[in-house]
Amino acid sequence: MHTNIQLMHIGQVIREIREARNATLEEVAFAADTNASNLSRIERGTQGYSPETLESIASALGVTVSELHLRAETATDTAGKTAGRKRQLQPATLAASKYSKLTPEHRELADEFMALLLRRQRPSKP
Known about the structure:
Layout: H1 4-20, H2 25-31, H3 36-44, H4 51-61, H5 65-78, H6 91-100, H7 104-120
């Protein structure tokens, strides 16, 4: 069973991903085969969800349930550090999410590009 803290963080992650994609509650709810009111309550952490509903929401957002949990866990780990501020998703988490959606061929290109950037990066001289 999920605790309210876990529900709240999953909901925050869902909202952040939805807003980052400029999607409305209605659009995501329709794609997830639920309604906007339910999705809103899930985002606010005031309503629970079934595994099937979470899978549908994740699919509508273009992520996996594992990614939602990973981001929620990151939020839990850093909650004390970000109290009173809106939490930003970590760049590495966002990059990993996007990287995982690439085809193997495009992953190879991304790896080559990253290697090139690292080779070209020069330490600044005092």
